[in-house]
């Protein structure tokens, strides 16, 4: 079942994020990798900046998380992670569909590491398309609070809306 998470769920959120993010180790630039991948202070900053986390729980245990953030005139999908032993059974898709139902703006974007081809494919399969390089950089600088190095090594996908 999908639940809206709160700051009280921080330890469980961090468990999912930091377990699932191990797939990035050795794939993303080594200067962008850190352990833990998301420390508690970073999670607190994300929540304070408006990221609303939702999660999929099974038997009371959080096994997947995904965030949504409304920034200016767009909706961002943020921090999508599924525990490694729970991947490829549709949890990410269920969370994404739930969050897209909450999107209140015309434009919905997601950013991910360029090296995370599996993530790009997931979003493309779910109705997103890569934006051109110049637009990517402009969007990342306008709507995300990330380093220039992360801008250089990331991609942005935009949800294709039906006319």
Describe the structure.
The protein has 163 residues and is an alpha+beta fold. It has one domain (2-159): Aminopeptidase, CATH 3.40.630.30. It has helices at 10-20, 40-48, 91-102, 117-125, 133-143, 148-152, and strands spanning 2-4, 52-58, 61-71, 74-82, 107-113, 128-130, 154-159. A seven-stranded mixed beta sheet has the order 1-2-3-4-5-7-6, with helices on both faces. The longest helix has 12 residues, at 91-102. The radius of gyration is 15 Å and the shape is globular.
**What is the tally of helical segments?**
6
What is the element string, with H for helices and E for strands? EHHEEEHEHEHHE
Task: Identify the CATH architecture.
Answer: 3-Layer(aba) Sandwich
Q: Tell me the name of the CATH homologous superfamily.
A: Gcn5-related N-acetyltransferase (GNAT)
| CATH class annotation | Alpha Beta
Please bin the fraction of helical residues: 25-40%
As a percent range, the share of strand residues is: 25-35%
Q: Distance N terminus to C terminus?
A: 31 Å
Side-by-side strand order of the widest sheet? 1-2-3-4-5-7-6
Set out the fold topology.
Layout: E1 2-4, H1 10-20, H2 40-48, E2 52-58, E3 61-71, E4 74-82, H3 91-102, E5 107-113, H4 117-125, E6 128-130, H5 133-143, H6 148-152, E7 154-159
What's the quick description here?
This protein is an alpha+beta fold.
């Amino acid at each position: 079942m999908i639940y809206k998470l709160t700051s009280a769920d921080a330890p469980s959120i961090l468990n999912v994020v930091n377990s699932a993010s191990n797939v990035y180790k050795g794939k993303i630039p080594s200067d962008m990798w850190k352990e833990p991948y998301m420390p508690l202070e970073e999670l607190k900053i994300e929540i304070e900046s408006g990221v609303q986390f939702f999660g999929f729980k099974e038997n009371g245990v959080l096994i997947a998380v995904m965030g949504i953030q409304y920034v200016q005139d767009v909706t961002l999908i943020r921090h999508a992670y599924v525990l490694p032993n729970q991947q490829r059974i549709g949890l990410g898709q269920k969370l994404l569909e739930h969050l897209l139902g909450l999107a209140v703006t015309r434009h919905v974007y997601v950013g991910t590491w360029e090296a995370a081809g599996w993530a790009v494919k997931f979003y493309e399969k779910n109705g997103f398309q890569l934006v051109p390089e110049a637009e990517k950089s402009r969007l990342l600088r306008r709507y995300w609070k990330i380093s220039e190095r992360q801008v250089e090594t990331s991609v942005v996908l935009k949800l294709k809306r039906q006319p």
